[in-house]
Amino acid sequence: MAELIFFSGTMDCGKSTLALQMDYNHRARGRGGVRFSCNDRAGGSVISSRLGLQTDAVEVIDTTDFWDEVVRRRTTGLTVDYLICDEAQFYSPEQVEQLARVVDEIGVDVFAFGITSDFRTRLFPGSQRFVELADRVQVLQVEALCWCGRRATHNARTVDGIMVVEGEQVVVGDVAMEAGRAEAAPAQAEGSHPVVGYETLCRRHYMRRVTAHGANLMASRDQLLPFDVDACLWRGAS
């Protein structure tokens, strides 16, 4: 029986790596599949992992119809046994419903990989529909880490190193490993554009609005108190 499976987790937990591994495993057993992605960090029409793995994919846009994509390939003689759908949080609810229909009526397995909630801790519309329709929702077991070493549970957006909780839901930003380090963000030249980045935080530091950059600023100052300083003492938390 074909299944619709949604693999969910924060950034840095290996979703794209697993997507590429699953695609390899199925192809190695003679199954035919199609890889899809949307707004990948490496650009359009590609699935990339932070480990350096990368392969081509079909870019999902607003007008993409997964039913038509599968039917068109099958009617031209191509084998389509499964779909790999990376960055699935960016799909529309209607596209998720198309994937469910592909599973139920054509018998194609769909393996979707995506982030559940955005930088405001609100569900992506696509992810919400996956949770509602998927045969299985699997949380990836590889734990992303906050800068403090705790398990990261939230995705944070930063602007010039300072966490923000308002703005457009989808904004492409720097997700390189260095962006999450406790290093001071470079000073922005006058008139230059602000640097948008993302990092994973534990709930405690997400609620306190303390990013790696903010922690570095606080650590560089003389700490007179023998306990953790509340983030409200750091002006960046506002």
Short descriptors:
alpha/beta, 6-stranded parallel beta sheet, 20% strand, 6 helices, 3-stranded antiparallel beta sheet, 26% helix, 238 residues
Give the topology.
Elements: E1 4-8, H1 15-28, E2 33-37, E3 46-48, E4 54-56, E5 58-59, H2 66-75, E6 82-85, H3 93-106, E7 109-114, H4 125-133, E8 136-139, E9 154-159, E10 162-164, E11 196-201, H5 203-208, H6 212-219
Parallel strand pairs: 1-7, 1-8, 2-5, 2-6, 6-7
Antiparallel strand pairs: 3-4, 9-10, 9-11
Helix pairs in contact: 3-4
Quickly describe the structure.
The chain is α/β, with parallel strands linked by helices and 238 residues long. The chain is built from 6 helices and 11 strands. The strands form 3 sheets. A 6-stranded parallel sheet has the order 5-2-6-7-1-8, with helices on both faces. A 3-stranded antiparallel sheet has the order 10-9-11.
